Inverse folding.
DNA sequence: TATTGTTATACTCTATAACTATA
DNA sequence: TATAGTTATAGAGTATAACAATA
């Protein structure tokens, strides 16, 4: 009802607008599962990269940043937020005292175990229009495109200048 | 150099993180072309939906919002920004004086004509890892997924609550 | 001197809500 | 009363820059 249902507005068949819409959809689906637990989709993504089931417990923050495709500053803030909620803990590395090793707490592991299946189901449901083999193909291609363009995955990707004419 | 090149960090094979990375990449590629002209990727997207070549000149702002998958408020701001730069103009509709019809100015059309081929090339280049038929398939599937999940494409998709335990 | 992480800050994108003006 | 658009405001995400501690 919110948006014009009229004649199903066309989507431009170009990567950038398509990627934006796809991201919106995926984020909305994840948020629906994760928000009731007080998490943002990104915070949940951090937990996914750090948990003991599909993640890498005791990863350092710089590596975590690389996994997420964000930079160290934001990782720090995200980790602090999760830590403040008792979902995650930082430990100083024994071999290099600059490094913080990050892992979920018991509480964090438990919450992740509860949310992960729902989040995954919600995300996969988005691909229901695709046949099973198409779905695999689609994810494969997505991975390949991302791997191939890793270098672009986060430089100054949204800077502005305001007033292009002066 | 910015990000750990170490062993090419794995990407989780789930829609949400993949969509985020893909969006980052696409946005970076678009920004590289569009920023030198003082535009953000989203402002450029507005121009793409409004220009006379591949867009719909004299579209109203609500329909434009639906095309972009954003809401009226932001459309208003975006349009104002482009208008302030002389790239776009608003006209009151003759048949309904509440409605503003949006179209590019001569200057806007000219700038869009300059940027569009470069932006398109930049975006398509991201898909170079894919074979030609794969690329078409990929875009098709992306469109289908988006069409199928239109309803999700922008409700309260990022709200928060802070402190899930209380 | 280089690197890990932190803090401060700013800007884009997106959302909610309250408003004006038309219908 | 409902709709198109505007304005104000806020929060999520991401960026730069300067800094502290450690190597």
């Amino acid at each position: 009802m919110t948006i014009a249902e009229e004649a199903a507005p066309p989507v431009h068949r170009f990567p950038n607008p398509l990627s934006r819409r796809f991201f919106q959809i995926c984020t909305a689906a994840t948020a629906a599962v994760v928000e009731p637990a007080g998490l943002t989709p990104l915070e949940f993504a951090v937990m996914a990269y750090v948990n003991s089931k599909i993640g890498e417990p005791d990863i350092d923050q710089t590596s975590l940043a690389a996994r997420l495709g964000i930079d160290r500053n934001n990782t720090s803030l995200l980790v602090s937020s999760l830590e403040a909620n008792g979902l995650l803990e930082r430990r100083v590395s024994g071999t290099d005292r600059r490094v913080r090793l990050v892992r979920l707490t018991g509480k964090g592991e438990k919450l992740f175990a509860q949310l992960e299946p729902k989040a995954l189901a919600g995300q996969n449901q988005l691909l229901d229009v695709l046949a099973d083999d198409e779905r695999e193909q689609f994810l494969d291609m997505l991975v390949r495109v991302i791997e191939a363009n890793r270098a672009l995955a986060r430089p100054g990707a949204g800077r502005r200048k305001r007033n292009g004419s002066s």
Summary: Chain B touches chain A through 85 residues (CB under 8 Å).
